[in-house]
Design brief:
Layout (H helix, E strand, L loop, with lengths): L1 E2 L5 E2 L12 H6 L20 H10 L1 H27 L2 H14 L16 H7 L12
Antiparallel strand pairs: 1-2
Helix pairs in contact: 2-3
Length: 137
């Protein structure tokens, strides 16, 4: 999640077990572009920048997989940018729910979104004025 000076936030991605984050900063040595927040209890492993770059240099298959994932992130980011540019807030919410449902289609063609997204998570994902920074309680 990233926050503007106004306190409004935007959610870029939800991560599942086994996924990674922080690779962009590890590659270009710039400040992180976003923050990460755990919504449930989780374990996190850390790899320092030098170790990470060394791994990419020694293991071309890992480097290639990372490039594919970064390309996928770039391609996926064009959808919400287009939505933000062309859709009203209520239509962005509808489009987001349809995208969530698309990933949860069962063998009978039914889609069940589970768990049901929290209102503030949806508003942050679609960048509406209802998205505000969560407290750290």
């Amino acid at each position: 999640m990233s926050y503007a000076l106004s306190g409004r936030g935007a959610t870029f991605n939800d991560l599942d077990a086994g996924q990674h984050f922080g690779e962009i900063s590890a590659i270009d040595n710039e400040l992180r572009a976003a923050r990460i927040m755990a919504l449930t209890k989780c374990s996190v492993a850390i790899m320092f920048q030098g170790q990470f770059l060394n791994l990419l240099g020694k293991e071309p298959q890992i480097a290639l997989q990372l490039m594919r994932e970064l390309i996928s992130m770039v391609r996926a980011s064009t959808i919400p940018i287009m939505d933000l540019s062309t859709l009203a807030a209520n239509n962005r919410v509808q489009a987001d729910l349809l995208r969530l449902a698309k990933t949860e289609v069962d063998d009978d063609g039914r889609a069940v979104i589970s768990p049901i997204p929290v209102y503030t998570d949806i508003t942050c994902r679609v960048n509406t004025t209802s998205c505000v920074k969560r407290s750290r309680n």
